[in-house]
Amino acid sequence: MMRVSMRILCLLAGAQAFSTSRLHATRSLATQQPLSAKVDGRTVEGEVKPTNNFILVKIADAVEQTEGGILLTGKAKIKKTEGTVVSVGPGKTHPETGAVFDMPVSSGEGVVYGKYDGTEIDIDGAKHTLIRDDDVLVKFKGDKLTLDTVEVVRDAVLVQVETKERATEGGILIARSSSSETKPSTGKVVKVGPGRYATNGEIMEMEVSTGDYIKFRDYAGNEVEIDGEEYTVVRMLDILAKF
């Protein structure tokens, strides 16, 4: 009788252990199951992962109200070319040397990119865009782009452009940047990127420093508004002289 009871207890213990093991296996399998998402209306399994040197960015909401409190509707809404980095690709590989160029941004950082850059993609009803690493004008941490949080990447230089005023024949002052003349191409260097990659993957030293005044090519660079002021992001190759 004792042997029968012990055998029953062993069988029960084995069944319980098998049940527990199966439960853990089921939970483990569930955690490994890819998440589903809707991409441009199509349900897909797993995450949307950028390839090469592409960056997946969740686009910031459009501005619906001006600083003066005027509500904007429809096409009047200001589409912001900034957002938060969701994920990044592995990086760009040089076709001749095989050197890998690391990505200049990380998940969670804010980025500002060119007006006509990127390919929009809808993920779970939210607007995203896929941009290249070279499309990034500046990056920043936190919720707001400020002069303290902004950083330039690669061989980019953040410049505070000169906006000298000129007077019309009627005596009306017009800022240079808003006139029909050539855009300002002189300014003070505010921030400097780490440098661009050489073919062997080494970072090349920048030739300008914070505080330098520079002259760059006409129409080179992209405007970025920071703390209500206009700045320009130019590449090192477009800088003609420093003084």
From TrEMBL:
Keywords: Chaperone, Signal. The keyword Signal applies. GO terms for cellular component: mitochondrion. CDD domains: cpn10. GO terms for molecular function: ATP binding; metal ion binding; protein folding chaperone; protein-folding chaperone binding; unfolded protein binding. Residues 1-17 form the signal peptide. Belongs to the GroES chaperonin family. This is 20 kDa chaperonin, chloroplastic. It comes from Nitzschia inconspicua.
